[in-house]
Structure formats: structure tokens, C-alpha cells
Amino acid sequence: MADRNKVQFKINGEHRVLELDSRTTLLDAIREHAFLTGTKKGCDQGQCGACTVHVDGERVLSCLTLAAQVDGRNVTTIEGLAQTDGTLHAVQAAFVEFDAFQCGYCTPGQIMSAVACIREGHTGSDDAIREYMSGNICRCGAYPHIVTAVRTAAARLQEGKV
């Protein structure tokens, strides 16, 4: 039987204490213990990006991160991006506006990566956006719309139009 540990962290601003098997991934902690199902389990091997979340503002693949590694840290999932009144984050709004999704399965991870892409300043060109976002796979092929959404959201955030 594996060891169980208490893991304390803030998820979307809410302090949580979870008693977890020491082998529990952050992805499974988020989905199965915090009951936030927006973060998706795709490949479970760190290759598709569907599980992307932010830990202390940095994007991470939650399927490759142990929950114990985020003890005492801040985790943001797709559910934590919108404002409390329901107003979408600029990236979320741009994804809707430019149809940057089809089936939607990859969309939470794409959006979390896009927010990091903008925050880290990788939006100087469409090629730079594509390179940064290359860890997020969209089987439907919505890539041109995703790039447009990221470019537009970055411009709007820079201009303070959101």
C-alpha cells in the first residue's frame, strides 16, 4: 500500500488540503479529488498538452507533475481564468470569437498554454506563437484559428482593451 500524504495548495485561489497517495499526479488530484474536470487527461504521457495548468504562474503538464510537488503553491486551472462574475479571460473570449476549437477536448490546455505564451512574451509573430504552442495537440486541426485567437488576445491585452 502506498503512503498517503496531506498536500496543501491553493487551486484557483481556494485553499485545499487533500490526503493523497504519494504517487497521485496533479492531474488526478485536480480531476478526482478537487472535482475540477476542465483540465483534460489526454495521453497521460506529457505529449498532448491537454492537461496544461499553471503552477505559480508557470505552465506545467499536470499528468507529469506529482501532486506532492505543488505543496504550498498556487495552481490555476481553466476554471480559474474567468472572473468571478463570469467574464471570460481575454484568451477565452478570443477562442470563442475566432472559433479556435472544434471538439473542444484540447481547448482548456490550449488556453492555459496561450495565456502563458502571452505572459512570457512569445507573441511577436505567428511563427513564435506556433512554436510556443507546439506542445499542445489539436486533432481537429484548429491551429490557424488558435494562432489568430492568441495573436488577437495578446494585442488586446497589450492595448488594455480587456
From TrEMBL:
Organism of provenance: Pseudomonas laurylsulfativorans
InterPro entries xref list: 2Fe-2S-bd (IPR002888), 2Fe-2S-bd_dom_sf (IPR036884), 2Fe-2S_ferredoxin-like_sf (IPR036010), 2Fe-2S_ferredoxin-type (IPR001041), 2Fe2S_fd_BS (IPR006058), Aldehyde_Oxdr_Iron-Sulfur (IPR052914), Beta-grasp_dom_sf (IPR012675)
A Pfam family the protein falls into: Fer2_2
Name listed for the protein in its UniProt record: (2Fe-2S)-binding protein
Cited Gene3D superfamilies: 3.10.20.30, [2Fe-2S]-binding domain
Gene Ontology molecular function: 2 iron, 2 sulfur cluster binding; metal ion binding; oxidoreductase activity, acting on the aldehyde or oxo group of donors
Listed PANTHER family: OXIDOREDUCTASE WITH IRON-SULFUR SUBUNIT, OXIDOREDUCTASE, IRON-SULPHUR BINDING SUBUNIT-RELATED-RELATED
Keywords, sorted A to Z: 2Fe-2S, Iron, Iron-sulfur, Metal-binding, Oxidoreductase
Domain 2Fe-2S ferredoxin-type: 5-81
Matching SUPFAM superfamilies: 2Fe-2S ferredoxin-like, CO dehydrogenase ISP C-domain like
